[in-house]
Amino acid sequence: MSQEPKLHVTEVGHGPRVVLVHGGDPGGGPTAFDAQKDLERRWTLVMPDRPGHGQTPRDGREDFERDAEVLSPLIAEQPSHLVGHSYGGIVALYMAARQPESVRSLVLIEPPAFWFAPDDPAVAEMARNNRELFENPPDDPVEMIKRFFALVGMDFPLPDDLPMPRPQPLVDIAKVLGDIRGPDEGSIAVGSLIAGAYPILVLTSGRIAGFEGIAEAIAAQTGGEHIVIPGTDHAVQKNGDAVNPLLERFWLKGAESPTSRDNGPR
Question: Per-residue confidence at 172, pLDDT binned at 50, 70, 90?
Fold first, then answer.
């Protein structure tokens, strides 16, 4: 029987518990959510490094469903607000569906949850491009990274005159991107999210039509809310000045959800 990698978790702050699940950030949770540092004064921020990121070792192909299993004990220990960014949003969706009684609220930041809007042309095109990139990655790691960042709307320009062979950090990032279970393989029944009775918020940058279509579909199907944060890129949470007040108001709303009341005060 294979042994799951030892999960590295950073926990800081004081107050109600929030579990933040990062996307593809190589540095893991603390670097992905560094703009949320000010919230430590009023909230306990729990930031795991998903396998293959930060200080948690990689153990095989990156897989959202497996990551959800590895991270689920974090909300089983104590009901928590749950935040997921990008690929981590898919992980968070699976965690919430598995343990609805452990979720006080759910925030999704540009999740590539294509199954919510399969008939939206922009979403379908994004899913196809995503699949094509993962299945047929270019040989040049710089080209791989550029195409991925363009697909998700990430502001991280790479110079055209990078040396050959390519710098090792870029080679490592491209290698990870080429060894991942595509989010288009995910699927969660809407009923399993609604059954939790926790509030759901989706944040987007407004830049990528596919993400906007997904967010609108999630909000419509779950009774959740979709808010666009102008001037951001795929890493919407990096604009702490705009995002943090929204998060706090939403988390306070989550404290009044039926699930939270049933589980008692936090």
Answer: confident
What is the SS3 string spanning the chain?
Answer: CCCCCCCEEEEEECCCEEEEECCCCCCCHHHHCHHHHHHHHCCEEEEEECCCCCCCCCCCCECHHHHHHHHCHHHHCCCEEEEEECHHHHHHHHHHHHCHHHEEEEEEECCCCHHHCCCCHHHHHHHHHHHHHHHCCCCCHHHHHHHHHHHHCCCCCCCCCCCCCCCHHHHHHHHHHCCECCHHHCCCCHHHHHCCCCCEEEEECCCCHHHHHHHHHHHHHHCCEEEECCCCCCCHHHCHHHHHHHHHHHHHHHCCCHHHHHCCCC
**pLDDT reported for residue 1:** 40
Confidence band for 264, pLDDT divided at 50, 70 and 90? very low
How far is the C-alpha of 154 from the C-alpha of 195, rounded, in Å?
34
User: What residues form DSSP beta bridges with 17?
Assistant: 44
DSSP state of 3: P
Model confidence pLDDT, tens digit, residues 180-220: 999 999 999 999 999 899 999 999 999 999 999 999 999 99
Please check whether residue 17 is in contact with residue 40, taking contact to mean a CB–CB distance below 8 angstroms. Answer: no
Digit-coded pLDDT (tens) for 126-145: 999 999 998 999 999 999 99
What would the two tokens of residue 211 be? 């993400």
Give the DSSP H/E element, type plus range, for residue 80.
strand 80-85
